[in-house]
Amino acid sequence: MKLPNDYETIREMRQHNPTTLKIFIGGSIQANCHFFCEEEIELDIDPNDINTESEYLMLVAFLEWLSQKLQKKVIVTYENIKEAQILSISR
Q1: pTM for the structure as a whole
Q2: What would the 3-class secondary structure string for 15-82 be?
Q3: What is the structure's pLDDT at 7?
Q4: Residue 40 — φ and ψ, nearest 5°?
Q5: Longest Cα pair distance anywhere in the chain, in angstroms?
Q6: Nearest of 76, 15, 12, 4 to residue 41 by alpha carbon
Q7: Rg of the chain over all Cα atoms, to the nearest angstrom
Q8: Quick check: 32 and 20 in contact, CB under 8 A?
Q9: What's the pLDDT score for residue 27?
Q10: 8 pLDDT higher than 90
Q11: How far apart are CA 12 and CA 22, in angstroms?
Q12: Apex CA 11: angle with CA 59 and CA 13, to 5°?
């Protein structure tokens, strides 16, 4: 299936199909994007996927890349607690 180019298409798809985009970082870390709203990209990452320093560094490299590509700050928080920042990356 071809990935949609815009949020409107994703929102329409959500009416009939699951719209979770699974991104594998370094092969061992799975980030799930759920497309809850147009204004934010929300990815959930299971902390159990990060067991070594190299896996942590792969995650940070991905977040730095994302921040650079979007020219936005990337913030890692606890689940459902936006105010509780764990990590913040700006490029």
Answers
A1: 0.79
A2: CCCCCCEEEEECCCEEEEECCCCCCCCCEEECHHHCCCHHHHHHHHHHHHHHHHHHCCCEEEEECCEE
A3: 77
A4: -135, 150
A5: 40
A6: 76
A7: 14
A8: yes
A9: 85
A10: no
A11: 19
A12: 95
- Chain-centroid distance of CA 80 in Å reads 14
Q: Is the CB of residue 45 less than 8 Å from the CB of residue 30? A: yes
Question: What per-residue confidence (pLDDT) applies to 1?
Answer: 64
In sequence order, the 6+-apart residues with CB closer than 8 A to the CB of 60 are: 87, 89
Q: Which of 73, 19, 70, 78 is nearest to 45 (CA)?
A: 78
Token representation of residue 17: 């199909």
Question: 27-84: per-residue pLDDT in tens?
Answer: 889 999 887 777 888 889 999 999 999 999 999 999 999 999 999 999 999 888 888 8
Burial label for 74, CB within 10 Å (0-12, 13-18, 19+), is buried
Position 36, amino acid: F
Could you give the CA distance from residue 45 to residue 7 in angstroms, rounded to a whole number? 22
- What tokens appear for 22 in the block? 């699974």
